[in-house]
Amino acid sequence: HTVRRQSIKRGEPRQMPSLPHTAESTVREEHFSSRRKQLEDYLTNILKMPMYRNYHGTMEFVGVSQLSFIHDLGPKGIEGFIMKRSGGHRIPGLNCCGQGRMCYRWSKRWLVVKDSFLMYMKPDSGAISFVLLVDKEFNIKIGQKETETKYGLQIDNLSRSLILKCNSYRHAQWWRQGIDEFIRKHGKDFLTEHRFGSYAAVQENTLAKCLVSWVVEYRDELLCLQATSAVFFIYLYFLRLSPEIFMKRPVVEGNRWRLDCILKRKA
């Protein structure tokens, strides 16, 4: 970042917005609204400058990532850095944390909350590490007694328990309340029972229904192709899904119901 700042052309505008120099304790109450407006203008001007807008420290401060405002991923929920316990399980090993306690492996991750799922990414590369779907068993627990972790937060669904560690009880409570309120406001359809045991409600005019209509219309042309090519052509062009998504959950039969394995069997 320092190199980028030094490499900016001298002719480019570089004027930084300024904050008030007087102490907050000396400001009268009737001037509070103008001080808030000054702070708002300061942040707005910072975000208008690409060099600072794309800086990781700025993105962390405002709580955004490269996935925050992608329309197809749903509305933006709270985001931020958390400490995640690997796999949500204890690691067998030496008793080095005190009597009756085991050693845990903790990783720093960026947690993103959406209406139908939670996911966390690696902070250095931005690679998505895991996606936790919102389903009828979605639940959040807080406290050391429930999570076996000081300032712990446990998020459960049908297939996984995600254990997080926060800086304080207040921080854990903030995450719990933020996630719970957002999911119940935007993702309540995923919290109830649906037909055939599905985690999602019935949707009209979806891509899957369009795909069925398309296959019926062009079945003769598809029959001219080899089965493998036809199936994977349909998958690649229409579904636009991760080949590793499980079509039947919870996962109890290995990879049998993973999308790429289903397509391979059908081919």
Attribute tags:
7-stranded antiparallel sheet; 267 residues; 7 strands; 15% strand; PH-domain like; alpha+beta
What does this structure look like?
The protein has 267 residues and is an alpha+beta fold. It folds into three domains: 32-62, no CATH class; 74-90 and 104-193, Pleckstrin-homology domain (PH domain)/Phosphotyrosine-binding domain (PTB) (PH-domain like); 217-266, no CATH class. It is built from ten helices and seven strands. The chain has helices spanning 2-6, 32-47, 50-53, 56-62, 144-147, 169-186, 207-217, 219-223, 227-239, 259-266, and strands at residues 79-85, 106-113, 117-121, 128-133, 139-142, 152-156, 161-165. A hairpin with a 4-residue loop joins strand 6 (152-156) and strand 7 (161-165). The longest helix has 18 residues, at 169-186. It is globular and about 75 Å long. The N and C termini lie far apart (50 Å). The model is unreliable at 89-101 (pLDDT under 50).
